[in-house]
Amino acid sequence: VRLVESGGGMVQPGGSLRLSCVASGFSFVSWEMIWVRQAPGKEPEWVSYINTASTLTKYTDSAKGRFVISRDNAKNTLYLQMNGLKPEDTALYYCARPVGIPQYELGMFEYDYRGQGTQVTVTS
User: 54 pLDDT exceeds 90?
Assistant: First the structure.
């Protein structure tokens, strides 16, 4: 299993970034996927979820209305479009395969594989 993120960078507040996560080594189409972020000195925070058919998506409250998760199963790729970025969005973002019975709204989630992450820095 391999997950490789890209698309991070440094942007000003209000800017946009599109993160990508290319998956290999497993049947991507069969797996739900999530984005997670971790800021320095903080615990990992679940950001967004998407089911296998892209018919169900979920977002942490701070991302609702600004971030859009999507996937292209033909390309084995997961995306996170981030608009209206704020300094508090600064973190290492990584994609992961969720396992178990998550309760995202309570911040409870587990994953079996994750990528190395891509850094997002929002600063003026």
Answer: yes
pLDDT digits (tens, 9 = 90+) for 97-106: 999 988 988 8
Which of 22, 26, 104 is closest to 63 using CA atoms? 104
Q: Which two tokens stand for residue 2?
A: 């391999």
Report how far residue 8's alpha carbon sits from residue 100's, in angstroms, rounded to the nearest whole number: 28
Phi, psi of 67 (to 5 degrees): -105, 150
Average pLDDT of the chain?
Answer: 96
Count of all residues that appear for the chain in the document:
124
109 CB-near residues (< 8 Å, 6+ apart) = 34, 36, 46, 98, 100, 102, 103
